[in-house]
Amino acid sequence: HVQLVESGGGSVQAGGSLGLSCAASGLSFGDVCMAWFRQAPGKEREKVASIDLGDYNTYFFGSARGRFTISQDGAKNTLQMSSLKAEDTAMYYCAARSRYGWPCESSPASNFDHWGRGTQVTVS
Question: Which of 14, 18, 20, 29 could bridge to 8 as Cys pair (CB 3.0-4.6 Å)?
Fold first, then answer.
C-alpha cells in the first residue's frame, strides 16, 4: 500500500523560503519517479519539479526553474523553495509513479498513480 504524506506548508512572506517534505512508504524507490505539483484556486494542476530515482536526474518546470530544488533522502522527498512569490500560493501535492514507460521529465499529472493529500503554501 503506497502512502504519500506531505508536510511543511504554511504562510511565508514574498522573497522568503520554505521546504516541503513528502514521506513515502510502500514504494520500490529505485523504480520511481517522484514529483511535486501545485494547484491554485481556479487553475489547473501544474507540475513544479520531478526527480527520477533511477538516476537522480531532476527536472523543473515554469517559474520553479532557478528557485526550487528537489531531493530524495531515503523515503523522504523534499521540495525546497526560495525567492517565493505571491503566485506560488497553491496547494502542493507530492506524487509518484513508476519511472518506466514514460519519462519522468515529461510525465503529466494523469500518469501519476499515487498522490498525497497536499499541503497549503501561502505567500503574501
Answer: 20
